[in-house]
Amino acid sequence: MSPVITVKKPILSLSQIINMSVGFLGIQFGFGLQNANVSRIFQSLGAKIDDIPILWIAAPLTGLIMQPVIGHLSDKTWSPRWGRRRPFFLIGAILASLALIFFPNVYALWMAAIMLWLLDASINISMEPFRAFVGDMLPDEQRTAGFAMQSFFIGIGAVVSSVLPYLLTQMGVANEAAPGVIPNSVKISFYIGAAVFFLSVAYTVFTTKEYSPAELKSFESAEQQEVDHSIITTPVKSFYNKGFIWLITGAILSFLLYYYNVQHVEMPLEKELYVLTFGIASFGLIQLAAGFSWSNNSKNGLVEVVNDLYKMPDTMKQLAVVQFFTWFALFAMWIYATPGLAQNIANTTDTSSKAYNEIGNWVGVLFGFYNGFSAFFAFLLPVLAKKTSRPMTHLICLVAGGLGLISFFIFKDKYLLILSMAGIGLAWSSILSMPYSMLTAALPSNKMGVYMGIFNFFIVIPQILAATLLGFFTKHLFNGNAIYTLVLGGALMIVAALLTLRIKIK
Questions:
Q1: Would you say 373 and 426 are in contact if contact means Cβ atoms under 8 Å apart?
Q2: What's the Cα-to-Cα distance from 96 to each of 190, 305, 361, rounded to whole Å?
Q3: What are the tens digits of pLDDT across the range 132-171?
Q4: What is the pLDDT of residues 177-222, one digit of tens each?
Q5: Which one has a higher pLDDT value, 394 or 186?
Q6: Least confident of 25-39, 195-209, 233-247
Q7: Could you tell me which residues come within 8 angstroms of residue 491 by beta carbon, excluding any fewer than 6 positions away?
Q8: Is 498 left (phi over 0), alpha (psi -120 to 50) or beta?
Q9: Do residues 381 and 390 make contact, with C-beta atoms less than 8 angstroms apart?
Q10: Rounded to 5, what percent of the chain is helix, strand, coil?
Q11: pLDDT of residue 2
Q12: How many whole angstroms separate alpha carbon 304 and alpha carbon 230?
């Protein structure tokens, strides 16, 4: 038996870490434009306030499907010239840039929903491998700094993209338009975003090199090298048993929802809940399909991804619960910031009014502030983590974010909301770095991409739940007062903070 040779992964210079992180400037530029403006676009095209969450459903559903697929494919990809992650960076950048150009020119609500799906799919192609890229390239002692550098560029990209409509309005670009038409301030912002997205990702692609699969294997510890992570260890029976449980549960819930709505025609439950019940059943079908393939000795990508899901490291399971509550809260903010603050501060729900559009622009400015704070705090996170620990750092930041969201209800002066954004910015900086820094230390190099994709489930699933449940909560529990939905988000972020106490990392 040949001896196991372990090589220490080289320490990278600051300039190398910067080069490999610049691409996230463009990625977040796209996300920033999407998060700050899509609800406004939907409402401009005639969407009602309680219909907005279901229109956003395309984005998280796309991530749920795309990220593990792209992660699995990038794990299996290697080109001496292009590497394993960089081809996906570039393809996603091209597609996302085209989507940003076409999106603000839609003229019907259904077109906007489709364009959101296409934009989010394209961004996911670029974004998912970037997380694995840091795990590939940096030793554990530099990963917190690496993800913090990504947070810095995310913050810069989001600041500029969020305030673009406001800045263009101040420069004389029209911020109002006829009903059913997107204002020019939004259109031009999306065009600028397309250029920034492509150029920044291309910079990373052409200024970085990647380690080969053999080099990455040599960097693993002797214990990790002795484990063959490509072996399917899940019995066929387990695929079938779990698949049938999920399928039957989803089918029963779908039937109960249908039966209730038939019996209560005058006050039915929201049809969006079918997304949740059908999703549960669909996950069961996926597991059954994987079991069928494995029972026929077909080791395809579906079997591998489902098997990897079952074999998640303990650290990943603990982080998953924290992610669940964190991203439910964030999705509440992204969906309801504009309508909630328009009601709470400007006392209006008229989407064509001057007051509503001014609040819409101010929300973009506020999003710019929290991303700016995030970029600043990114440099403090490695210091705080060194003095305490990565889980404790994340706890502190999430508490600050939860209090910031709750203060949306308290502050009636729009300028005081900048203080709210300081807390949210601290949380956002940690959300973008600390979970990934803790996770990558527990993952094998040849599964980094697919596990990053699976980890995205715990970002996407709460977003799907938010898209299906927040409209119900806002309409039935809060009587259409979206500001209370933001308070709910703040409370859930504090729950996420407390759950970090369960995380144990090596």
A1: yes
A2: 11, 26, 24
A3: 888 888 888 888 888 889 888 988 887 788 778 888 988 8
A4: 777 778 888 889 999 999 999 999 999 999 998 888 888 877 765 4
A5: 394
A6: 25-39
A7: 402, 406
A8: alpha
A9: no
A10: 75, 0, 25
A11: 46
A12: 8
Q: Considering only 225-234, 294-303, 328-337, which range has the smallest mean pLDDT?
A: 225-234
Burial of 251 (0-12, 13-18, 19+ CB in 10 A): middle
Across 368-398, b (16+ Cβ under 10 Å) vs e yields bbbbbbbbebbeebbebbeeeebbbbbbbbb
Residue 494 has pLDDT above 90, yes or no: yes
Nearest Cα neighbor of 391 from 274, 501, 292, 231 is: 501
Contact 32, 154 (CB under 8 A): no
Q: Rounded to whole angstroms, how far apart are CA atoms 360 and 364?
A: 7
Q: Which residues does 167 contact at the CB level (< 8 Å), separation at least 6?
A: none
HEC profile of 344-392: HCCCCCCCCCHHHHHHHHHHHHHHHHHHHHHHHHCCCHHHHHHHCCHHH
- Location of structure tokens 């040849």: 446
Report the distance separating Cα 402 and Cα 336, nearest Å: 15
Distance in angstroms (rounded) separating the CA atoms of residues 274 and 293: 28
Q: What are phi and psi of 12, to 5 degrees?
A: -95, 155
